[in-house]
Amino acid sequence: MTFHLLIFARFCPLDADNVPTQITGGPIMVNVTANGTLGQNGARYNYPALLLGVPLILVIILGNVLVCLSVLTERSLKTATNYFIVSLAVADLLLAVLVLPLYVYSEFLGGIWTLDTHICDALMTMDVMLCTASILNLCAISVDRYIAVVVPLKYNRNQFSMRQLILIAATWVLSFGVASPVIFGLNRVPGRDAGVCKLENDSFVVYSSVCSFFVPCPIMLLLYYWMFRGLRRWGASRESNLLRAERRFSLGLRRAGAAYLVPGLSPTDACPGTVPDSDLITAQGDSASDAEGGERAREGSPRANGARGRRNGRASNSKSSRVSGRERKAMKVLPVVVGVFLACWTPFFVVHVTKVLCVSCDIKPPLISVVTWLGYVNSAVNPIIYTAFNTEFRNVFQKLLCCQT
Fold this sequence. Notes:
Residues 63-386 form the G-protein coupled receptors family 1 profile domain. Belongs to the G-protein coupled receptor 1 family. It is found in: Cell membrane. GO terms for molecular function: dopamine neurotransmitter receptor activity, coupled via Gi/Go; G protein-coupled receptor activity. The chain has 405 residues and is mainly alpha-helical. Among the domains are: 1-44, no CATH class; 46-224 and 362-401, Up-down Bundle (Rhopdopsin 7-helix transmembrane proteins). It is built from twelve helices and four strands; from the N terminus they run αββββααααααααααα. The protein has helices at 2-11, 47-73, 80-108, 117-150, 162-186, 202-214, 216-259, 277-283, 290-299, 307-357, 365-389, 391-401, and strands spanning 21-25, 28-32, 38-39, 42-43. The strands form two sheets. It has a two-stranded antiparallel sheet with strand order 1-2. The longest helix is centred in the last third of the chain and has 51 residues, at 307-357. The two termini are 45 Å apart. Mean pLDDT is 74; it is low at 1-43 and 265-325.
């Protein structure tokens, strides 16, 4: 296809006064000027776009394939939250395979679209759909985390439930619903410039931006705000309950020691202050992790103070630390993912909506290109964040890259 364009450019010289000359190669019709991508002496290609685009595509594919393989092959990573991360990685992976190659090709030709308009419509549909899927997956993760904090006793982080499956399916159905008007003919307007691939309907630009970004983002941020506020409150309450339980337990031990000095009294009869296991579990039921509360309750129970009980207590403490550590890691990584996503995509949506709503605003094409590239870079950043903030992901990545079993 590019070969045909070069042949026609050689045999159809352009006017010296920059008058557009129409070049037709088979079904392709492209308007080119002397200052455009194709000139009299050959082609003016945007090589920086190629140098940035090809490595970006490879990094996105490699990183997100590693994320998917890590969760699917490593048992310790098969948690409810990580399945949402897989859904997010699939969206980024599809973006690198279906959208970015055509976008890089168009940028390489200086923004000129040389393919069929139906391919352009499919490209715009996939672009809107996958961008929407990314942010809706992040929103679904925040909903899932919020449920885990609000009703921890009904949340099983190690089992993928029907609720989570419905959330993931809903993100993809809604994403296709937002983008579907483009593929169903919204972009086919009279007088359309076949040499430019873009969304032709300004109202749809505003509508898709609201549905894909300006509505889900505040919801997601509010959920994280309530979540962290609740975690701080419950953390303080849990520490207070544990401290109170330890005081009562210590008092019970002292009374038990005194009871041995009085004949006829058993330690149990003399220990009204001793807290049974069920009471400790109840006292810690407000923990952000039900598994953590159960393990700490068993650790602090009177039965854990024998020789074998101390060994079991240390094992329980180790297990509790692992579970608590995973929860803390998830709560540290996800806000970073959300923050980076907002930093990458906010300029894109602000610029495009401003361009539609503010007619007098002079937004240059280079700015549009920069914010678009910044949005696409986000798809390569998420796997790097997981590697930097999550030791388990990092270890599995190394194992997969080194082909270890």
